[in-house]
Amino acid sequence: MKFMLLIYNRPGFVEELSEAERTELFGEVDAIMAELTASGELLGGEALADPAQTRTVRVRDGVPAVTDGPFMEAKEHFAGYLLVECESTERATDIAARWPDAKRWAMEVRPVMSESGTEM
Amino acid sequence: MSRDAPAEDLLRELAPQVLGVLVRRHGQFDACEDAVQEALLAATVQWPADGLPDHPFGWLLTVADRRLIDHWRSERARRNREERLAAQAPADEQVAPAPDGESTGAHDDALTLLFLCCHPALSGASQVALTLRAVGGLTTAQIADAFLVPEATMAQRISRAKQRIKAAGGRFGTPAGPDAIERLRAVLHVLYLIFNEGYTASSGPDLHRTDLTAEAIRLTRAVHRLRPDDGEIAGLLALMLLTDARRPARTGADGALIPLAEQDRTRWHAGSIREGTALVTDALTWGPPGPYQVQAAIAAVHAEAARAEDTDWPQILALYRLLAHLSPGPMVTLNQSVAAAMVHGPQAGLDLLDTLAGDERMAGRHRVWAVRGHLLELAGDREAAREAYRTAARRTTSLPERRYLEIRAARVGGGA
């Protein structure tokens, strides 16, 4: 089963960390990435640039409105994702739980819709 | 992907046998597999140019053996081991086999290779990948394509699987006693998974995945030839043939799924149905049946009916009862509830479905809701049927299935 693990955090939080905290955080990320690569479960993933660079587009009655940034009140933002293929939802949840952002903010685990279907 | 069909078929037939002989002789799966890959590569270059050798098996074995030894020579650290191996090997194994020496163990070697690839230390996904590569002779790129994952991912998965076999001390020998039965079960399950991966995806445009059903049938056929007296192998082959026979009728022109009851049965593949039905009918007379035989028998009963309404539901219900006895599970109960509804009315099916309510394995599964919707529709409760279909549509992770369920929900209408 394929899952997208969505990473949520607060923009700019990395700058507020001490050197030791930063090292620990990236160490955890490196360890999980190495494990997922070795097991062949990692399909891909990307980190997203700062929300300050984001544009949000809404078309209403045929009129597009383009605004800066995705958020009005939100303190958390969608910061990136991992795409994994693993045996069960439980395994996907375990991976998400070990991602450092899960401890401070949140990870979302979402099954990916497939193009194939079983017989009715 | 164009293919030189006869040569490629021959190579894929011979590759596992050559690999089996090498691993038995030298004991290093990883290195032997690389050597066989190199020999196959050499064959694809030389055979079309020079013509088929008189004894392709001997040719491949000799080339692979030579590559393996070259490889060891090139690594000084391995030299001692090589010498030790050479000293230990019996004299008759030092001699290259006669060119026509289809060594008597070649077929058993292929089966043992399958056992090794389905090593219990591996996850199901790794067993499938390794089997397709080592026994099926597919390239890593082809396997990655079929499973819609990046090639690097599949390469990692395969290399990791090989390491795990090594770490688990995967000995190259035919498992004996109860272990053999357990391992054979794993092999059949892996073949079944390969088939399903191809079959559930055949609605898509990707031909590689239809290749997977063909590959699963080819490998199961080979295992059946090695063990023709095993009823479950025959049963699994029959099940695949009977299921695959429906493929032309399963999807509409737009790729939408067509349920069994609405399929144009004249488009079912008659040859596969004949072969599958004969296989399972014969196997069922050998002794107590196993789950694959019973599932094949159910598929055969469906295949017998020229029209959906001619289906012999009492017989199918009886077979599901037998299956529930042999290998009970929520999916069996689910299918049995449909058969029960067809024989005893929708309420009987719904009652059986209710027994799954507390089953954690089925919690969140969309299929229970799809079947509930179908049975409620049969019972005339349109409102509840629509809600069940909608719940099922929300829970499936398959796009074609979701479309199908949404159409069903719309079709039963609301509040009528």
TrEMBL record, chain A:
Coiled coil: none annotated. Signal peptide: none annotated. InterPro entries: Dimeric_a/b-barrel, YCII. Residues 1-113 form the YCII-related domain. Belongs to the YciI family. This is YCII-related domain-containing protein. It comes from Embleya scabrispora. The lineage of its organism: Bacteria, Bacillati, Actinomycetota, Actinomycetes, Kitasatosporales.
TrEMBL record, chain B:
Keywords: Sigma factor, Transcription, Transcription regulation. Gene3D superfamilies: 1.10.1740.10, Winged helix-like DNA-binding domain superfamily/Winged helix DNA-binding domain. Residues 114-165 form the RNA polymerase sigma factor 70 region 4 type domain. Residues 10-76 form the RNA polymerase sigma-70 region domain. GO terms for molecular function: DNA binding; sigma factor activity. Residues 79-103 are annotated as: Disordered. Pfam families: DUF6596, Sigma70_r2, Sigma70_r4_2. Residues 183-283 form the DUF6596 domain. GO terms for biological process: DNA-templated transcription initiation. The keyword Transmembrane does not apply. Coiled coil: none annotated. SUPFAM superfamilies: Sigma2 domain of RNA polymerase sigma factors, Sigma3 and sigma4 domains of RNA polymerase sigma factors. InterPro entries: DUF6596, RNA_pol_sigma-70_dom, RNA_pol_sigma70_r2, RNA_pol_sigma70_r4_t2, RNA_pol_sigma_r2, RNA_pol_sigma_r3/r4-like, WH-like_DNA-bd_sf. Signal peptide: none annotated. Belongs to the sigma-70 factor family. ECF subfamily. This is RNA polymerase subunit sigma-24.
